[in-house]
Design a protein that fits this description.
alpha/beta; Zinc Finger, Delta Prime, domain 3; 17 helices; about 10% strand
């Protein structure tokens, strides 16, 4: 896990930022887990940009808990730019939170112009800062080896080379493969045969075909892949890791578009591969930011069901989420 969270001391404020979405998600999960053990059982999430009204955060801080429980306040700033009003609000929030509040600020990759701002310098001076740096292709082998070592496994040199080649620098794909290796009950050392059986398995890469099918509004293909993944033993949390990653990117781009940027500009800022720009661009052309908020809301509902915090069937809720993505015109008409 990320070094900054390995410390025993628990902090009242956290700032998570960086270029790797998987590491950002893992940092959030680790902090929430630690917080829950300390009695922080309520959680409120906010998504802001430079034009947002921050009154809701202050209202949440002032509202009493029904069960006198401690609260986690998560503020997502996908673009890392809170604007003038938001900057003032963040500085004020730092002064009024109490021991019953945990404040987590989550951003993407921050430009130097952001890290030089007054709010960032003040917040980072008070908060525990967790930077999720980009894992470059040359570092991928080391990253995979460390992840396997954390789970009590080593890996043969030729097996590692194949693992890196098959996952193509995608941390989500690599982590999914590691999870599947653990389910195989491998004894201490991962061999080339193990990697071939697991990482190169077609079902694993069906996950990424699943999101592409949904974004392209191909409902038939989406649910054929979805049913196949269920039959092949894929777990709901594995499926949602990839879907959440896609939703986060789409949400950030739709927010960027709502601020006046073009679809092309937003995709370039998000570093969408050229080969996927037509697919993503067609989807963004059909939805508005309000609809993306409803998709995000359903994703949060799925997360609660998977973790046992809400009643329901995880697969049914994931199916509803996929339907919303694959049929955007139904809600935006």
């Amino acid at each position: 896990m990320i070094k900054q969270i390995e410390e025993k001391e628990f902090h009242q404020m956290y700032l998570i930022h960086g270029a790797e979405d998987l590491l950002i998600l893992e940092a959030q999960d680790e902090i929430r887990s630690n917080a829950y053990n300390l009695g922080f059982t309520e959680r409120s999430r906010f998504y802001f940009d430079a034009r947002s009204n921050w009154d809701g955060v202050f209202a949440e801080l002032k509202s009493p808990s029904l069960f006198a429980e401690k609260k986690i306040i998560e503020i997502n700033l996908p673009l890392g730019r809170p604007g003038k009003t938001g900057s003032v609000a963040l500085l004020e929030l730092m002064e009024i939170i109490t021991d019953d509040h945990l404040l987590i600020l989550i951003c993407g990759k921050l430009e130097k112009s952001v890290t030089n701002t007054k709010w960032f310098k003040a917040f980072s001076a008070r908060a525990q800062v967790i930077e999720c740096k980009k894992v470059y292709p040359s570092q991928m082998g080391g990253w995979i080896s460390r992840r396997l070592r954390d789970k009590g496994l080593s890996i043969d040199k030729d097996a590692l080379a194949m693992f890196v080649a098959l996952t193509e620098g995608n941390l989500f794909a690599a982590m999914q493969s590691i999870d599947r290796l653990m389910l195989m009950g491998i004894d201490q050392r991962v061999s080339l045969e193990d990697v071939n059986d697991c990482v190169a398995d077609g079902a694993h890469f069906d996950l990424f075909q699943l999101t592409d099918a949904a974004i392209s509004s191909n409902s038939t293909r989406t649910f054929n892949i979805f049913k196949r993944l269920q039959k092949e033993g894929m777990q709901p949390f594995e499926v949602m890791r990839v879907i959440n990653w896609e939703i986060k990117n789409l949400f950030s781009m739709s927010l960027d578009i709502s601020c006046g940027n073009s679809i092309k500009q937003s995709m370039n800022r998000a570093k969408i591969w050229q080969s996927k720009q037509q697919l993503i661009g067609n989807f963004l052309n059909q939805v508005n930011h309000q609809y993306m908020e409803s998709i995000l809301g359903q994703a949060c509902s799925v997360d609660k069901v998977i973790k046992g915090a809400a009643a329901g069937n995880s697969w049914d809720e994931i199916g509803r989420l996929l339907y919303m993505i694959a049929n955007p015109m139904r809600k935006t008409a």
